[in-house]
Amino acid sequence: MNNRNRALFQRLASIGLLACSLSACGESLPWVEINGHRYNVEIADDDAERQQGLMYRNEMDADHGMLFLFEHEQVQSFWMMNTHIPLDILYFDAEWRLVSASRNTPPCSSGVNCPSYPSKGRARYVLELNAGQAKAIGLKKGDRLTLGPGIPPG
C-alpha cells in the first residue's frame, strides 16, 4: 500500500470509528469504576426496578453489577428476598463516596423472613456486586465511585 492509499485508509478508519462512537454501534452497558476496577452496571432508577433488583438471578458476571439511584440521601436498607447469589451491597453518599458496605450478604431464596441490611449512614446510591469483590479490590470507607457515560451524575 502506497503512502497516499495508507493515509486515505487511516482517514476512513478514523471517520468510521468516530461515527461508531457517536451512534449505538457497539452499544454496551453503562459502567462505574472504583479503586481502578471497572464494572458494567444495570441501572435501577425507579421504584419497580429498585424493587426487582437482582431477584431470581442465578449468576452475574464478575465484572458486572447493579447500580441503584435514589432521589434522596437517607439510610437505605436492602434485603435479599428471592436473590439467589451472595452480594456485596455498597452504599454511597451524594458525593459518590462509600459510607458503608454489607459484604458477603447471603442469598434469601425462601422469600420469607429475609433480614434487611441497612446502610450505616445516609446514602443516595447503592452498588451491588458479586460477594467478595469489595475485599478483592481493597474497598474501604471513603473510596469514591467514578461514573462512566450514560449515568446521570445525580
Report on this model:
The chain has a single domain (28-147), classed as Protein of unknown function DUF192 (Jelly Rolls). By secondary structure, the protein is an alpha+beta fold. Strands 6-5-8-3-2-1-9 form a 7-stranded mixed sheet. It has helices at 3-22, 47-52, 133-136, and strands spanning 31-34, 37-44, 64-74, 77-79, 87-92, 98-105, 116-118, 123-130, 146-147.
Please summarize what this structure is.
It is built from three helices and nine strands; from the N terminus they run αββαββββββαβ.
How many helical elements?
3
Considering DSSP H and I runs of 4 or more, what fraction of the residues is helical? 10-25%
Whole-angstrom Rg = 19 Å
- Overall form: globular
Strand order of the largest sheet: 6-5-8-3-2-1-9
In the CATH scheme, what's the topology name? Jelly Rolls
Strand elements, count: 9
The CATH superfamily bears the name: Protein of unknown function DUF192
- Binned strand content: 25-35%
Low-confidence stretches: 5-10, 12-26
Structural class: alpha+beta
Topology order in helix (H) and strand (E) letters: HEEHEEEEEEHE
State the CATH class. Answer: Mainly Beta
Terminal CA distance? 50 Å
- Largest beta-sheet details: 7 strands, mixed
Q: Which CATH architecture would you pick?
A: Sandwich
Mean pLDDT: 86
- Count of the separate structural domains: 1
Ordered list of secondary-structure elements with their pairings:
Elements: H1 3-22, E1 31-34, E2 37-44, H2 47-52, E3 64-74, E4 77-79, E5 87-92, E6 98-105, E7 116-118, E8 123-130, H3 133-136, E9 146-147
Parallel strand pairs: 2-3
Antiparallel strand pairs: 1-2, 1-9, 3-8, 4-7, 5-6, 5-8
